[in-house]
Design a protein that fits this description.
Blueprint (H helix, E strand, L loop, with lengths): L9 E8 L4 H13 L1 H4 L8 E2 L5 E2 L7 E6 L1 H13 L4 E5 L8 H9 L8 E9 H7 L4 E2 L2
Parallel strand pairs: 1-4
Antiparallel strand pairs: 1-6, 2-3, 4-7, 5-6
Length: 141
């Protein structure tokens, strides 16, 4: 097994609005990346197993990089992700008031693209494309 870090051709990134509470940051991140494995199965690695043979679910086969930015940074990144047609997920402020998946989808569907109150965005794609989408964002501390 190689000990050299592997440089991936693709990037998984999450951009969070800077004014979120810590619990919101964790919750939004989990929701945003949850659909990526279904939409892009190539990001999923092999299942895990410990020395006793206990099996564990597979996880992403590459790091998930977390960024933060202002609402304006999020809106700009969202626009760039759309223009590049990169796979993406959104989390809006309205979703904090819903309690199930049906209501979540209805809350997003009720608002125009330009009117979405974005608090989080996940994007996946070629490294350089994702880097361009995230222009102006900074790594999460």
């Amino acid at each position: 097994m190689s000990t050299e870090p592997r440089r991936h051709d693709t990037k998984i990134a999450v951009l969070l609005r800077t004014d979120l509470a810590p619990w919101q940051r964790l919750n939004v991140t989990a929701f945003l990346v949850s659909g990526l494995g279904a939409a892009a199965p190539e990001v999923i690695g092999e299942p895990y197993e410990d020395a006793d043979g206990v099996a564990y679910l597979p996880m992403f086969g590459q790091p998930v990089l977390i960024f933060e930015g202002t609402g304006e940074t999020l809106r700009a990144a969202h626009g760039r992700a759309l223009s590049r047609a990169l796979p993406r997920a959104v989390f809006t402020a309205d979703l904090f008031a819903t309690g199930n998946d049906d209501d979540n989808r209805a809350a997003v569907r009720a608002v125009s693209t330009a009117g979405l109150d974005l608090v989080g965005l996940a994007v996946y794609g070629p490294r350089n494309g994702v880097d361009k989408v995230l222009k102006g964002a900074r790594m999460h501390p």
